[in-house]
Amino acid sequence: MCDRISSNVREGILVGCGNPLLDISAVVPLDFLQRYSMNEDDAILAEDRHMPIYGELVEGYRAEFLAGGSVQNSLRIAQWILRQPKVAVFFGCVGEDRYADILKEKASSAGLDVHYQVKRDVPTGTCAVLITGTHRSLCANLAAANNFTIDHLEEPGNKALVENAQYYYISGFFLTVNPPSIMQVAATAHAKQRPFLMNLSAPFISQFYMAPLLAVLPYVDIIFGNEAEAQAFAEAQNWPSGDLREIGKRLVALDKLNPARPRIAILTQGCDPVLLIQQDSVQEFPVTKLAVHEIVDTNGAGDAFVGGFLSQFVQGKSLDVCIRCGNYAAGHIIKNPGCTYSGEPEFVE
Prior knowledge:
Blueprint: E1 14-17, E2 21-27, H1 30-35, E3 43-45, H2 52-60, E4 64-68, H3 70-82, E5 88-95, H4 98-109, E6 113-119, E7 125-132, E8 135-141, H5 151-154, H6 156-164, E9 167-171, H7 179-191, E10 196-199, H8 203-208, H9 210-216, E11 222-226, H10 227-236, H11 244-253, E12 264-269, E13 272-278, E14 281-285, H12 301-313, H13 319-334
Function: ATP dependent phosphorylation of adenosine and other related nucleoside analogs to monophosphate derivatives.
Catalytic activity: adenosine + ATP = AMP + ADP + H(+)
InterPro entries: Adenokinase, Carboh/pur_kinase_PfkB_CS, PfkB_dom, Ribokinase-like
């Protein structure tokens, strides 16, 4: 079982900002994707043509409702492994409706300290999770999540929570919502010399939101991504995109405000080894391959990896322990529907 939590883990040590979404998850045939012009393993924002998806899943398929949103998922997994409530604080925007109540109940029961901004005139965001075999495709309707504003972080109680944290994690997805909020949290982390972590999140972020991504990257101490996301970044930068190690080295070498803490890139590649790329080294961390019958749902594996990593990182553990816990968490989540877990964590350092 997990070692005892070290004494330096306190409430509110980790702050995350992201899009709180209620996942509507169902197994669908491949032609369902094709009808909505989607591909297996897509991660896209909903357009008008996608809006019927959510009702169709609820009415025509055995849809499950799961608390979702990338950062909220990662923080829930970190809380599960830490087994200590309110280590992580989460900010995001929801509507004033039943879906928001479900989200808050699920997040709070997982140990998260949630501080949602509430918008009465828009519904809580949803994400269709379309499962085809071992593949999953995501179509997010951000709705209220898209309405997060920086003044929520400037409320005295919330500002104190941000300033009180020692670690900060924000997804690339949040770049589509409110870049000024990201920049404010990043500037706080920089001023206090505390680690700021970020995720490339999806290929479309690099394809369509490169300007705000490049604006925040000088603050980023650790950048996460998978192979498709890293390749999309490389292509948007006109870098050679065939060699993941080379992409990682270039990511690490981009301008950084605090050169005393060189940037680290952590790139996952499914069942192939995780790459830890630092200024002068590239290390591989093997992933335990699962049998096909063990794989229930790959949705949330990337979020779980980050959650496992964060659970050790906030305890001051070494990067290799953090990555091995990330791999443990991702492997566990894949055996469950959505980004959910079962039983007690069994990571052994």
